[in-house]
Design a protein that fits this description.
The complex is a heterotrimer of chains A (about 325), B (about 425) and C (about 280). Chain A has about 325 residues and is an all-alpha fold. Chain A has 13 helices and two strands. The chains are: A mainly alpha (about 325), B alpha/beta (about 425), C mainly alpha (about 280). At the A-C interface, α1, α4, α5, α6 and α7 of A face α2, α5, α6, α7 and α8 of C.
Chain lengths: ~325, ~425, ~280
């Protein structure tokens, strides 16, 4: 990562000069920065266009093709694949499950990640160590975290053993259409909140400690400080976490694939799992790509709404 | 992120280039002194080491290189790589019901000139699974069947006499469930458990036993038929296992055989591979008996395992064919494929040599297994249907099994499955 | 801080204790499932499900730990796979961080027309699910003869829209006055990037580095599509290969996953200290 022992050069210009905005000649101002910026941007842009956007365009083109192995060869079918998707009850079900999932899991995960970040940035014994434990699950291979949770959720598994210890009745977890989605969300939060917490900790550490000291002297409670100082000042990292978390949750499929295969009764059939199943198991690449395009548009719409909401508070 | 790391970038980029350069040049060793046959499969490399070295000893100058792909991703990986005409695959293992689809897609080399030899080498069922549109596309290497494993201690506790290994004294499912319930009353956690709780391979015999057929009919084998009385009755029986707590919900994947090994269930439906597993892990008195059938129904056992085929894009088809013939048609070669794993060789001659070894694995516990397997393969075996649409069919059916197990109403769920399968098949035409 | 401590020592001490306790409890709760995995990697696979319910001390402890499962792993491909995964991940992190940080700098420090549009492209690229476009991308890579090469495995991880988005978020927090002053002092754009932006955004860079690292460390579908001969096998594929068709030894599988988890854990622990120091001094804000 960062080169060890690199000298941290405190910027020389730490004394901000007021009134530096002296007028410069127009022509230089207009195109020089654009060229410089493009130079900085070009390696990444080439990468993104070649490795993400180009195959996405190919995927879109494929979504307009059809034709099975028996008829031999693909041919252009226009929007047929899309029409077929929207007339399929299974697809509509998958869409609704995905929306429900998105609306619940993202705010919950961001809130938990934020509270954990606040907790683990307070002065407390061993907080660095405990914090590492919360981050740890992100490093576990997805195939293994699915196995672990299948053992927790088994009817005679660890989950019900704990409930029994507390005198609570046993739960069906993944075998019940009403509990399975929640069970998947708990698993995903165990994996993910530590990761998102990491970015919020970085944001919270950027909040000048003087602000808290001043507030303490004014007699503001810790709870009040949290909402009046910490929250507004980490709005930008929070916005990032919300958007990035939303996108990642749209792309979840490994635990669903391993634990429930979308069931029971389609209750956990998230779009990305449906896509994966269609493309890799059923081999219906064309319809799968149509589904990808729909998923990307859906994500785009939700992220656009998030940006708009956040922008009104000057976040981006 | 300074000079050090910039140097690192340069260094690692060069290293990457160097490494990829090396491997690019080494991945295609010239065919100066013979050729290299590349085999792709889902087994541990140790499994195929004996057959590979036996082949290499007989065919000096030809080497076989094996690549393992995880089992759960094998068919999707094959689909993508064969479609791209990947030359890094010469011979590959094919799950038998997928033969027709792969053949229809043009991903298998026509082996029809081997028809006579192939017919002689194995059972009629194991020959027919490799035939699509009157042509032979693959050769059977492994075969399988299912049996019932019994925890005799648990039955003794309930005062029930255990079934025997004699197929003529095959138990009925009704009898098995009653005995299982009695064992539960006597302290057993569960009554009966299938190894592949949501797998078509193990559940097909239930419907077949009641005359429901495989679920696929029609001249082109693209008509779904899973709502007939046979299927409905069989699946209702299966659903009742779970709603009556005879079988556990939520235990799946590879977690079923430990339930038997831990002594928590008196009856377990499993395969030959479980003989070795239980010989190692089960610390009670167990035995192996025939898979039950429904009262008044037909005795049916699952059948089939893996065939091997040749990639039409291969550059080494002749050498590949030689290797394939060795592994499937040559009894010694076929036997070598099962040296390191517990699975039945498909070659009849190799099977006869192999079964006594299998029976010896479990000592007195597995007494009679060799005869039982021979008999089941000869008389009760029903292979999975040969259809270009099998992949879609199996995927939809497995989902339906999972839902039925978790309590979905049987009739409605089968009807859903039927229409889902038909929708998926429409895309093939 | 010392002022407050002397003023309200009692309240602070109970607060300190309470926070420590809550922090510890939550940390342990997150650890518990992994602890169970660790314990089961130290006993034979046949015992994995033996102590599930009811809970007993044996569920979470074993008196006879042994390393047999780890010894079994030595004979397989895992060692080589971990080496390959580490190599791929480290190259991706180093090259990816540089490329992404440069892009983020271009998007945050230098005002120019069309910035919004380019940011839009970045966001769009990270909304596209990689596993879904892997199939067309694999076809492109095969045309470029990249199958079974490290370049083919590394490249898709390098341009990462989320990393750019993340670093940009933190770059935006750096006051523009600082840039203007530095420019007046004669510092070029590269200098501003290297001497001001990079050192001031270390937590973000570490976070982005972790994102890039995990993308490659957990890559599964892509390596399978690109070909995984024994020279190019990666960790998750080797792990899945342990899961046979008829059988899986959970003891061995858990041992492998403990090893696959330990390496990112070590990296996270090492990077922790950079998070603890608040990087931007308060004078800057």
């Amino acid at each position: 990562m960062t080169a060890p022992g690199a000298r941290i050069q405190r910027p020389r210009a730490a004394s901000p000069l007021p009134g530096t905005r002296r007028p410069r000649r127009r022509s230089r101002l207009v195109w020089r920065p654009t060229l410089v910026a493009l130079a900085f941007l070009s390696p990444a842009l080439i990468g993104l266009v070649l490795l993400r956007l180009a195959p996405a365009v190919v995927a879109f083109w494929q979504s307009l093709q059809g034709g099975g192995i028996l008829s031999g060869g693909e041919h252009f079918v226009g929007l047929d694949n899309y029409v077929e998707l929207f007339s399929s009850a299974d697809f509509i079900g998958s869409l609704l499950v995905t929306l429900l999932f998105t609306v619940i899991i993202n705010p919950v995960q961001v809130a938990i990640a934020f509270l954990l970040a606040v907790l683990y940035t307070r002065r407390a014994a061993g907080s660095g160590f405990w914090r590492s434990l919360v981050i740890l699950p992100i490093a576990v291979p997805p195939a293994v975290s699915a196995v672990i949770w299948s053992v927790i959720y088994r009817p005679d598994g660890l989950g019900n053993a704990f409930l029994g210890m507390l005198g609570l009745p046993a739960q069906p977890f993944l075998t019940s259409p009403t509990q399975s989605l929640t069970a998947i969300m708990v698993l995903l939060s165990w994996v993910g909140v530590g990761y998102w917490m990491l970015f919020l900790i970085a944001g919270i550490n950027d909040v000048p400690t003087e602000l808290y000291e001043a507030a303490s002297l004014d007699g503001a409670s810790a709870w009040r400080q949290l909402w009046t100082i910490t929250f507004p000042l980490v709005r930008r990292p929070l916005a990032f976490v919300l958007v990035a978390d939303t996108v990642s949750n749209f792309l979840v499929f490994a635990p669903v694939q391993i634990l429930t295969k979308g069931g029971p009764e389609g209750s956990t059939n998230l779009l990305m799992h449906d896509i994966f199943n269609r493309a890799y198991t059923l081999g219906d690449l064309n319809t799968a790509q149509a589904e990808v395009i729909i998923l990307v548009l859906l994500t785009l719409a939700i992220v656009a709404v998030q940006f708009r909401l956040l922008k009104s508070e000057d976040a981006a | 992120m300074r000079r050090v790391s910039l140097a690192l970038v340069a260094l690692s980029a060069t290293a990457a280039l160097a490494l990829s350069g090396c491997s690019a040049s080494s991945s295609d060793p010239g065919s100066a002194d013979g050729s290299v046959v590349k085999l792709l499969g889902a087994e541990d490399p140790a499994t195929f080491a004996p057959v590979i070295s036996a082949f290499e000893a007989e065919n000096k100058g030809t080497t076989v290189k094996y690549t393992q792909v995880p089992f759960d991703q094998l068919s999707s990986t094959l689909q993508q790589r064969l479609a791209a005409k990947d030359k890094d695959i010469d011979v590959y293992t094919v799950d038998q019901p997928n033969v027709s689809q792969l053949a229809a897609q043009g991903f298998l080399e026509d082996l029809s000139d081997l028809k006579d030899q192939a017919k002689k080498a194995t059972t009629p069922e194991q020959y027919s699974v490799n035939v699509y549109q009157d042509k032979l596309w693959a050769l059977s290497v492994w075969n399988s069947t299912q049996m019932m494993f019994v925890n005799n201690d648990a039955l003794a506790k309930a005062g029930i006499a255990a079934p025997t290994a004699n197929p003529a004294e095959r138990w009925t499912w009704e009898q098995t469930v009653d005995a299982g319930k009695a064992a539960q009353a006597a302290g057993s956690k569960w009554g009966l458990l299938f190894e592949q709780v949501e797998g078509y391979y193990q559940l097909q015999p239930l419907a077949e036993s009641l005359g429901g057929g495989s679920g696929i009919t029609g001249k082109d084998m693209l008509t779904a038929d899973v709502t007939n009385p046979g299927w409905t009755k069989a699946m209702q029986w299966y659903a009742d296992l779970y709603s009556n707590n005879v079988s556990p919900r939520g235990v799946g994947g590879f977690q079923t055989s430990p339930v038997f090994a831990d002594g928590d269930v008196p009856f377990f439906i499993g395969g030959p591979w479980d003989v070795g597993k239980f010989a190692e892990n089960a610390k009670f008195n167990w035995s192996v008996v025939p898979m039950p059938a429904f009262a008044g129904g037909k005795a049916v056992t699952p059948n089939g395992s893996w065939s091997w085929g040749i990639n039409p894009a291969s550059d080494h088809k002749d050498a590949a064919k030689k290797f394939l013939e060795f592994a499937a048609l040559n009894p010694a070669g076929n036997l070598a494929t099962t040296e390191k794993t517990t699975i039945i060789p498909a070659n009849t001659e190799a099977q006869a040599k192999y079964l006594p070894t299998l029976e010896a694995l479990g000592g007195t516990h597995s007494a009679g297994v060799a005869d039982l397997i021979t008999e089941e393969i000869k008389t009760t075996a029903v292979p999975r249907p040969v259809s270009v649409g099998y992949v879609q069919f199996e995927s939809m059916m497995n989902k339906a099994f999972a839902d039925i197990r978790n309590g979905s109403p049987v009739e409605a769920r089968l009807k859903d499955a039927q229409s889902q399968i038909e929708a998926a098949w429409k895309k093939l035409r | 801080m010392s002022v407050t401590v002397t003023r309200r020592p009692r309240r602070l001490r109970t607060g300190y204790l309470l926070l420590s306790l809550v922090g510890a409890l939550i940390g342990l709760a997150f650890l518990l499932p992994l602890w169970w995995t660790l314990v089961n990697s130290l006993r034979p696979g046949s015992d994995t499900f033996a102590f599930l319910n009811p809970l007993s001390w044996q569920t979470f402890f074993t008196l006879s730990p042994n390393l047999d499962n780890y010894v079994t792993l030595l004979s397989g491909d895992l060692g080589r796979a971990i080496g390959n995964s580490l190599f791929i991940s480290v190259v991706t992190v180093v090259a990816g961080l540089l490329i992404c940080a440069m892009a983020a700098f271009g998007l945050s420090a230098i005002p120019f027309r069309g910035r919004g549009a380019i940011f839009g492209i970045v966001i769009l690229s990270f909304l596209i699910p990689f596993d879904a476009i892997a199939i067309p991308l694999a076809d492109m890579f095969r045309d470029w003869n990249l199958q079974n090469t490290f370049i083919g495995l590394i490249l898709p991880g390098i341009g990462n829209g989320m990393a750019i988005f993340l670093i940009r978020t933190f770059f935006l927090a750096i006051p523009t006055e600082l840039v203007e002053a530095a420019r007046l002092d004669g510092l070029g754009w590269w200098g501003v990037f290297r001497r001001i932006y990079l050192p001031l955004s270390r937590p973000a860079l570490i976070g982005a580095g972790l994102t890039l690292f995990l993308f490659q460390w957990q890559a599964y579908m892509w390596p399978l599509l690109m070909g995984t001969d024994q020279n190019h096998i990666v960790g998750p594929v080797a792990l899945s290969n342990l899961q046979g068709q008829f059988n899986v030894d959970y003891g061995v599988m858990f041992a492998a996953s403990v090893i696959l988890t330990l390496i990112p854990l070590l990296i996270i622990m090492i990077c922790q200290r950079y998070f603890i120091q608040s990087v931007s001094t308060s004078g800057l804000k």
